[in-house]
């Protein structure tokens, strides 16, 4: 299922909740606090300064198609995922707003990868970190959070992560980071080496330097907002497509124009898909959305391993499936150009899920029709009708 925005269909962006002021327990003019703040900001900025840019990899397509497909490999960040960029921005935002304070914990609601990255930055500046996550979060992620010095607070109902995080922050005098509200505003979308600026710079010497499409997936919605805003700001003609998994309300909210849609079942594709329209998702900025079956996401991420020898998480498969469908549409229309999507995190975090046939069977997911569709498309250039 897919939709392109036409006519006057609009989605009104949700109102951002006001972040409650933290308990005033520190004199912000105190020299000791100002010294701690300056040193903390320096450490976070230094992490960016010593980190190289991530690679832009090519997915092999027949040269005769006249279409290039790229994957921005965000799994090579120090904490192994796209969320490293977000966590760095959120920490700088929280520090510069005076919300993160010495000795007080940072609390985050997360499905795992953001929490891994935030635990890293919390350890870097010497504050405690608590991740509030669904109990179904992969064990590899919880181990990584604990490796970086964080503590995991697991909940049975994923819909409660917001209120539990806020409660823990209030009880501890800490700061609830709230990525689902602040992701889109904490990132500098005008430039400063954000992910969009990096993609366009890396494409500069390619045969199609301005991509026809960039395909993103949405957890907070911060990445799609950053990419779309940068494109509009830079006056490119590139379009942005957001691929949404099952058990997520973003697609329905985008299509219907409602902020009140919800989903009772948790997403099986970790890191993306949400039970509510998150405040940080900016639907009016994107051009198109696709709803992707979870079995198709898994089939695509396994096809990625066969194509370039890299394992990635399920969210990468969601974006890749949509990218391949866009490539098929371009072929049908006789258009050349380039398409870009993301490798969001490494597959070794999900060996017991997306790379486990037992897990697939337990979830009732049959990836064989989707794997066959990908193989047929790459062999013939025609998208099978049954693949949707």
Automatic annotation (TrEMBL):
The keyword Lyase applies. GO terms for molecular function: lyase activity; pyridoxal phosphate binding. SUPFAM superfamilies: Tryptophan synthase beta subunit-like PLP-dependent enzymes. Residues 54-345 form the Tryptophan synthase beta chain-like PALP domain. One of its GO terms (cellular component) is cytoplasm. Its EC number is 4.4.1.1. It catalyses: L-cysteine + H2O = hydrogen sulfide + pyruvate + NH4(+) + H(+). The modification N6-(pyridoxal phosphate)lysine is found at residue 83. GO terms for biological process: L-cysteine catabolic process to pyruvate. Its cofactor is pyridoxal 5'-phosphate. It is found in: Cytoplasm. It is an enzyme of class 4 (lyase). Pfam families: PALP. It comes from the Bacteria. InterPro entries: Cds1, Cys_Synth/Cystath_Beta-Synth, TrpB-like_PALP, TrpB-like_PALP_sf. Keywords: Cytoplasm, Lyase, Pyridoxal phosphate. A cysteine desulfhydrase that generates hydrogen sulfide, H(2)S. The H(2)S produced by this enzyme stimulates respiration in M.tuberculosis, mediated primarily via cytochrome bd with a lesser contribution from cytochrome bc1/aa3. H(2)S modulates the balance between respiration and glycolysis, and also contributes to redox homeostasis. Probably eliminates toxic levels of Cys (which can induce oxidative stress). Belongs to the cysteine synthase/cystathionine beta-synthase family. Cds1 subfamily. This is L-cysteine desulfhydrase Cds1. The gene is cds1.
């Amino acid at each position: 299922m897919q939709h392109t925005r036409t006519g006057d269909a609009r989605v009104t962006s949700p109102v951002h909740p006001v972040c409650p002021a933290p308990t005033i327990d520190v004199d912000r003019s105190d020299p000791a606090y100002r010294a701690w703040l300056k040193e903390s900001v320096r450490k976070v900025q230094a992490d960016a300064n010593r980190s190289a840019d991530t690679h832009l990899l090519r997915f092999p397509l027949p040269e005769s198609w006249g279409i290039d497909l790229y994957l921005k490999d965000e799994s090579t960040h120090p904490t192994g995922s796209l969320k490293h960029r977000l966590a760095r921005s959120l920490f700088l935002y929280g520090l510069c707003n005076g919300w993160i304070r010495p000795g007080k914990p940072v609390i985050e609601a997360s499905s795992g990868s953001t929490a891994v990255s935030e635990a890293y930055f919390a350890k870097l500046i010497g504050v405690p970190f608590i991740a509030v996550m669904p109990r179904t979060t992969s064990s590899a992620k919880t181990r990584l959070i604990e490796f970086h010095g964080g503590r995991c607070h697991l909940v049975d109902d994923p819909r409660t992560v917001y209120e539990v995080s806020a409660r823990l922050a209030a009880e501890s005098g800490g700061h609830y980071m709230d990525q689902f509200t602040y992701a889109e505003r904490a990132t500098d979308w005008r430039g400063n080496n954000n992910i969009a600026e990096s993609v366009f710079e890396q494409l500069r010497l390619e045969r199609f330097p301005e991509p026809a499409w960039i395909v993103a997936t949405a957890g907070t919605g911060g990445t799609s907002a950053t990419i779309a805003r940068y494109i509009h700001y830079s006056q490119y003609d590139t379009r942005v497509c957001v691929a949404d998994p099952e058990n997520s309300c973003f697609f329905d909210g985008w299509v219907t124009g409602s902020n009140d849609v919800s989903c009772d079942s948790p997403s099986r594709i970790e890191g993306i898909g949400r039970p509510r329209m998150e405040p940080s998702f900016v639907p009016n900025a994107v051009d198109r959305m696709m709803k992707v079956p979870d079995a198709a996401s898994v089939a695509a991420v396994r096809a990625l391993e066969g194509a370039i020898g890299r394992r990635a998480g399920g969210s990468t498969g969601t974006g890749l499936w949509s990218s391949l469908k866009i490539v098929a549409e371009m072929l049908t229309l006789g258009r050349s150009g380039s398409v870009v999507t993301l490798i969001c995190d490494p597959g070794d975090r999900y060996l017991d899920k997306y790379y486990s046939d037992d897990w697939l069977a337990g979830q009732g997911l049959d990836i064989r029709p989707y794997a066959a569709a990908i193989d047929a498309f790459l062999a013939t250039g025609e998208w099978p009708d049954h693949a949707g």
